[in-house]
């Protein structure tokens, strides 16, 4: 991690941060968020805060353990290129695989039968070997792992895993909570509630409070009554829990699933089932504690591993769970007034112009938000976990492709909803709430948005938090994972034909316009024309890049383009502050954003980029030049980033990096040049797509 001094116009020195690898970004504390709606719903007299461990680099609390375990191994001589065995399943397996990818360790993961079921595709993409053992318990699996390691003379990480979980949560998780107490962001902690799998993290947190002499803090661990919720109670270290006084409570499986779905849709907290179970028990505990108590809930992981599980209504029905499934939402009438389709998505709604003297884009009928680089420990809502994403230097991929210069990637998948589109969703909602444009937003109003998915997730998240209904219209090619993520946040999803042009009544835009005419007081925020789209990136994303790069000069910025808001907003700010920097837009073959003469409109697989029209939010003059992308290279690069850098990014991220490296080579950038690439989203939405070998092979994207 490097801190970079920046001298501002005022003469003061600011400190930005870039990270030498994604593991360094894991040193950032995860935020705390209050559950205000549930407090009212359950008439609680105490405050419950959730700690968002799913915003860790690989998506769970286990990231802390895996990092610490490998640190212990390195202290006794394990080095890059070594073979290592470990016993782990579920989120823990992904955490160990991610750390191993960064460190260049050849990892083999062993687990009992069924423990890879929800994570096998991700593990395969991360490049680890997995061995599913014909046993049912982790104690048996550990014994067989250790025996295999001894026979093959391979180092076994199992000797460190329990201690690593204990130490990491004592030294980091508990300390982060107390930092929030010490700066008076939250009240004195009365209880910490945490899902139990091994129980070592809970014991570590309990040890922290015992070590400080604060014996009034209750640490409560939660398990499932029948051990049927993934990653709960499967490997309990009961002696450790007893030694450190961790209380144990049990939840019912179906009750936990139903409540977790409610938690996501009510508070926008995109938690996994063990996390929801812990919140459920925290609510019960709050009614036992004195009024005014503060309860912290550690959220073990997020929704990524469960989009084919309890969040999927088909899974709920097939497994006969006592959980209410979602109802179908409204469909547009088959007859409609053609006038409702009179719409021009190529015009920006409102003024945003450049000052002719200063050359800054300072004239707007929307009030600008001031840039604040701070990332508080305690947030007002989960929407405040949008932004301040880490800027990470690639260590291996550029060299492997013959690139000499420094390449930094901005990891937008670490936003609250998982993509850079969270920024524009939040900003468009803020503008509508403040100005009434393009429509008045009050609780209960219906937001309708045509989207390729990520904006829909961001708006679904904002709608859940702010109390709006939400309907998303989306082409059929977009992944099922995106649809389930939006539905879990309470939105209704309507699929439209891939082949329908933007001006067709059956396209995602046409269907949205028809629904708007039929639903009273419905509002289409309209990412294609809304100035909040590029403004979010002008005010925040670009400022974060400049701030974090500090005194490292930026030579090149490479951005994929969809609605064009990202590339327009960032480019305008970059050109204002660093006139010598060049901004490259990347547009897929089959899209016309780079200019109609560049390509015919055609189908392409990479999601979230390109269009068959020029949106009003795209200022093509802001881009210095364009690169045209292909699906195969984009997906292969995304998989390479995952496997060699531990950066769990999506297909459009691979697109941006591949063509950034091509530009670096074309320009013959020297070793001291600096290139910044924005990674729009992560793997969550694509587990059944480009992470899947069968899907890739069907499209001839994998080399024989």
TrEMBL record:
Enzyme class: lyase
EC number: 4.2.1.22
Biological processes per GO annotation: cysteine biosynthetic process
Swiss-Prot/TrEMBL keywords: Pyridoxal phosphate
An annotated Gene Ontology molecular function: pyridoxal phosphate binding
Signal peptide: none
Known catalytic reactions: L-homocysteine + L-serine = L,L-cystathionine + H2O
One Pfam family hit: PALP
Tryptophan synthase beta chain-like PALP domain span: 26-301, 383-681
Cofactor(s) needed: pyridoxal 5'-phosphate
Gene3D superfamilies to which the protein is assigned, alphabetical: 3.40.50.1100
InterPro entries xrefs: Cys_Synth/Cystath_Beta-Synth, TrpB-like_PALP, TrpB-like_PALP_sf
Quaternary state and interactors: Monomer.
Family the entry assigns: Belongs to the cysteine synthase/cystathionine beta-synthase family.
The protein, known as: cystathionine beta-synthase
Lineage of the species this protein comes from: Eukaryota, Metazoa, Ecdysozoa, Nematoda, Chromadorea
